[in-house]
């Protein structure tokens, strides 16, 4: 009897924590997102789903910009990260762990500090562009910070390791004997890659996209530090609506729209590969 | 393949480049508050590391919050990791899903929804609410790390302990815990790192409490003092040392 209860007792504290501080707040936020009123008179539940339409149409420039920055950064991460994961998985030899450690090195420095350092390197008189301007290789009014490129490169920089790791894990699992068999059957290197390696690594790519796209779209730091005033993203809007304007319904509606995109992604992934696989992908 | 190797190193260097900049400018003999151009080498900022009261307080607050939230997270996360890795029970699939949802909920959404909860429950925002939030976002990571380790456990060891008359608690303390300890330690490091680094969630639930990352972002406009670089460098150095010594210890064991 005791042993049958054990798993439930072990899970109980976490259930309480996750229930009280994740599930309940998210449900409350879903409820707030359809309320109306203001911070002085209080908010009343009116099931005004129009909040979503209003918030999305009012902030559509920032929403579209966030989707475009996040999407471009995610695509850049796949393109930059895939060859790295490929090389480490197939040519890393017994130094694989070292290469992965080097890729994770930036995580020993605070996210905030890294973004500020990156801004500092890109800034007009910073240590990258300054010398180039002094040597006359760049016009003196050339700048990268406060442009779309700066924000996208910052997002790419910050989440790239989260893209490389799941791709690496899926490539590592490709059985080399399958590739040898294909070679023996006269498949060219391109064919082996196209027909065997690439399809087998797609779950890794998908897991990477899942782990990077929504955080990148929702990130308020890169836009604030690197983007100047003309590159506000939806994360900045949600922060401002919550912390400055106290417009909770609109902020909740925007947050929940983001969450919905993510939930659909997770659901598709869990359906296709099972929850255990989802966890494993997340564990790496 | 040579080309790919060079490319991989280039990406590694790119990822590490802001670290070099951070370390270098901790040694910068800058005369003003803005630390953006090179003025020669000095160790002054290492001597005057704690000269800025607000910054020192923020660092201490961050360390305290990280220690407390890591302790809570490790205990309940290890319990959940054991439940998921060793047992079959009703609601396991749902629990797995919940853990994954906790990992992938955007920080912004997590912070915003927690703030709504604290506001509507009339809870004052201070270190306690920050700790609640930090346990929440590190819990799933600890669970997943411990669970991975539990899955490699040989169940016959625990059976043997039981057959030799060990109590369930004795079996756990003398057999199970030592075997999963590397996973627990890795989870603890992860929880500590996530806590001390967090900006987004904390910015929603902090009230008037200022942590290290919040202090840094708050001083972006007026200029980041070199002490921040020095503290970042020291945290980086300690983190790398711990990680390397852990991996050496793991290799010896294994």
From TrEMBL, chain A:
What does the record say about its membrane topology?
Multi-pass membrane protein
Cellular component, GO, one term: plasma membrane
Q: Which Pfam families match?
A: BPD_transp_1
Subcellular location field: Cell membrane
Where does the ABC transmembrane type-1 domain lie?
Answer: 63-269
What are the alphabetically sorted keywords of the record? Answer: Cell membrane, Membrane, Transmembrane, Transmembrane helix, Transport
Gene Ontology biological process terms from the UniProt entry? transmembrane transport
Q: Where are the transmembrane segments?
A: 67-88, 100-122, 142-169, 196-218, 250-270
Question: What family does this chain come from, according to its entry?
Answer: Belongs to the binding-protein-dependent transport system permease family. CysTW subfamily.
**Which PANTHER family does this UniProt record tie to the protein?**
INNER MEMBRANE ABC TRANSPORTER PERMEASE PROTEIN YDCU-RELATED, INNER MEMBRANE ABC TRANSPORTER PERMEASE PROTEIN YDCU-RELATED-RELATED
Q: What protein name applies here?
A: Spermidine/putrescine transport system permease protein
TrEMBL record, chain B:
GO cellular component labels: plasma membrane
Q: Origin, by domain of life?
A: Bacteria
PROSITE patterns linked: ABC_TM1
What Gene Ontology biological process does one annotation of this record name? transmembrane transport
Q: Which CDD domains match?
A: TM_PBP2 (cd06261)
Q: Which residues form the ABC transmembrane type-1 domain?
A: 59-246
Provide the protein's localization: Cell membrane
Listed A to Z, the keywords are:
Cell membrane, Membrane, Transmembrane, Transmembrane helix, Transport
What the entry lists under Pfam families is as follows:
BPD_transp_1
- What kind of membrane protein is this, topologically? Multi-pass membrane protein
Under the heading SUPFAM superfamilies, the entry gives:
MetI-like
Q: Which residues cross the membrane?
A: 7-27, 58-85, 97-121, 127-146, 175-196, 230-250
**Would you identify the family this protein belongs to, as annotated?**
Belongs to the binding-protein-dependent transport system permease family. CysTW subfamily.
UniProt xrefs under PANTHER family: PUTRESCINE TRANSPORT SYSTEM PERMEASE PROTEIN POTI
Q: What is this protein called?
A: Spermidine/putrescine transport system permease protein
């Amino acid at each position: 009897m005791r042993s049958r209860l054990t798993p439930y007792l072990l899970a109980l504290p976490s259930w309480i924590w996750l229930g009280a501080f994740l599930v309940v707040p998210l449900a409350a936020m879903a409820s707030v997102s359809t309320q109306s009123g203001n911070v002085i008179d209080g908010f009343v539940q009116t099931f005004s789903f129009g909040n979503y339409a209003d918030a999305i149409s009012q902030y559509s420039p920032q929403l579209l910009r966030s989707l475009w920055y996040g999407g471009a950064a995610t695509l850049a991460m796949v393109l930059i990260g895939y060859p790295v994961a490929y090389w480490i998985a197939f040519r890393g030899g017994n130094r694989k762990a070292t290469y992965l450690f080097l890729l994770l090195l930036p995580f020993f420095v605070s996210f905030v500090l890294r973004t500020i350092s990156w801004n500092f390197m890109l800034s007009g008189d910073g240590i990258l562009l300054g010398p180039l301007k002094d040597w006359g290789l760049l016009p003196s009014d050339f700048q990268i910070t406060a442009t779309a490129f700066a924000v996208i490169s910052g997002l790419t920089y910050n989440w790239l390791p989260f893209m490389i790791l799941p791709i690496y894990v899926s490539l590592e699992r490709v059985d080399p004997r399958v590739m040898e068999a294909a070679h023996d059957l006269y498949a060219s290197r391109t064919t082996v890659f196209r027909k065997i390696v690439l399809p087998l690594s797609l779950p890794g790519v998908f897991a990477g996209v899942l782990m990077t796209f929504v955080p990148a779209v929702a990130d308020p730091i890169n836009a604030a530090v690197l983007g100047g005033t003309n590159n506000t993203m939806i994360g900045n809007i949600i922060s401002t609506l919550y912390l400055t304007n106290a417009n909770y319904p609109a902020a909740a509606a925007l947050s929940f729209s983001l969450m919905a995109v993510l939930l659909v992604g997770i659901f598709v992934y869990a359906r296709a590969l099972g929850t255990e696989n989802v966890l494993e992908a997340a564990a790496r | 393949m040579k080309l790919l190797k060079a490319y991989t190193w280039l990406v590694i260097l790119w990822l590490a480049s802001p670290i070099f900049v951070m370390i270098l400018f901790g040694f910068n003999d800058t005369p003003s508050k803005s630390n953006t151009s090179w003025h020669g080498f000095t160790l002054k900022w290492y001597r005057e590391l704690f000269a800025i009261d607000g910054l020192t307080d923020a660092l201490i607050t961050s360390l305290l919050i990280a220690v407390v939230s890591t302790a809570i997270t490790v205990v309940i996360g290890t319990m959940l990791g054991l439940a998921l890795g060793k047992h079959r029970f009703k609601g396991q699939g749902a629990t797995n899903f919940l853990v994954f949802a906790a990992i992938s909920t955007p920080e912004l959404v997590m912070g915003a929804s927690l703030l709504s909860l604290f506001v509507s429950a009339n809870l004052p925002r201070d270190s306690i609410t920050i700790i609640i939030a930090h346990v929440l976002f590190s819990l799933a990571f600890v669970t997943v790390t411990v669970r991975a380790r539990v899955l490699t456990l040989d169940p016959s060891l625990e059976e043997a302990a039981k057959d030799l008359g060990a109590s369930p608690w004795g079996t756990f303390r003398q057999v199970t815990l030592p075997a999963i300890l590397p996973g627990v330690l890795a989870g603890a490091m992860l929880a500590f790192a996530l806590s001390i680094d967090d900006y987004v969630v904390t910015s929603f639930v902090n009230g008037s409490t200022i942590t290290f990352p919040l202090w840094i972002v708050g001083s972006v406009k007026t200029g980041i003092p070199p002490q921040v670089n020095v503290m970042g460098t020291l945290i980086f150095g300690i983190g790398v040392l711990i990680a390397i010594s852990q991996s050496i210890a793991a290799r010896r064991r294994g």
